Amino acid sequence: MKRILVLISGSGSNLQALLDMSSQDGYPASIVAVISNRADAYGLERARLAGVPALCLNHRDYASREAYDQALMACIDEHQPDLVVLAGFMRILTEDFTRHYSGRLLNIHPSLLPKFKGLHTHARALEAGEQWHGASVHFVTAELDGGPVIIQGRVAIDAQDTADTLAQRVHQIEHQIYPQAVTWFCQDRLQWRDGQAWLDGQPLPAEGIQVGAN
Q: What b-and-e string marks burial along 32-44, b requiring 16 or more CB atoms within 10 Å of the CB?
């Protein structure tokens, strides 16, 4: 059984998708803890309702990003996770942190990477006149939103879309592709090797596995 630890900052909708997945009979992993940098994150309540330890480590209690990340690493490592999953964890991580969990740290980003790294991705996709938008699950490196992509879910952009309507559809596909990537890892099918994502012994293309609208 693999041990998964999830980091959150907000409502935790992706966390809920992971909790639902891990509660299935015969699933090869369990979520051993959820940690938030915000005490008011609703995702902590989701974890408690699922019987998962829910912890808050407030970044405001630390003088620097480096000090916080060191404390966060110590807290994570107490739970001995095989995989650390960022599910709406709104912190830019230090290089020490990403190096410490190299190959076992996943993130989901609401764009078709490498497009629209950073914030406000839905509005930026609309402003750019994109035909497609979506989300990407990737291994985390020191480069912001720059690690190897594992899987992408695509949605078509409608002429009537706003940033909010587009975000709702992207969230739906996030809840499909994140559990899929985590499952591959927990089945020992997904690996980080030579700076690339590998699935079933084969290197993945730069855009990862593509799912969703064609």
A: bbbbbbbeebbbb
Find out whether 107 is annotated in a ligand binding site: yes
The C-alpha atoms of residue 82 and residue 33 are separated, in whole angstroms, by 12
Half-sphere exposure of 42 (CA within 13 A, CB side): 5
pLDDT digits (tens, 9 = 90+) for 99-150: 999 999 999 999 999 999 999 999 999 999 999 999 999 999 999 999 999 9
Q: What strand order describes the sheet that includes 196-199?
A: 190-193, 196-199, 202-203
15 is in an annotated binding site: no
User: Catalytic annotation on 109?
Assistant: yes
- pTM assigned to the model: 0.96
Is 92 marked as a binding-site residue?
yes
Closest-CA residue to 207 (of 138, 133, 107):
138
CA distance 97 to 37: 15
**Active-site annotation holder among 100, 109, 122, 175:** 109
The answer to whether the CB of 105 falls within 8 A of the CB of 140 is yes
CA distance 94 to 44: 24
